[in-house]
Amino acid sequence: MAWESDKPSQNEDEYFARRDANWLRERRESLDVDRAKREKMQQMMRCPRCGGHLSERAFAHVTADVCDQCRGVWLDAGEMEMVAQIPRDELLRLGRDIGTDASAG
Q1: Rounded to whole angstroms, how far apart are CA atoms 13 and 20?
Q2: Is the CB of residue 55 less than 8 Å from the CB of residue 65?
Q3: Do 42 and 36 meet the contact criterion of CB atoms below 8 Å apart?
């Protein structure tokens, strides 16, 4: 059987090299987009008062951002209405927990 020059197997190495290069390029682009999102989130997760790092704290279906330095509590849009529905004793417990975290850190 004679070798046919138009068979894909003749350029198999080139095909796989091109496919791998395309995959690497697409993966690099995807990772770059993910990194940019993470960096943007890290910049956004700074305390507007002191510039400290904000950590998320979940309580009663609300996620608050708490500053690790000044212990400020920040809420996203619409969360204040949700906080208004939380019983007073649960809010006081959250305040004590945040204050306890500050004295431990």
Answers
A1: 10
A2: yes
A3: no
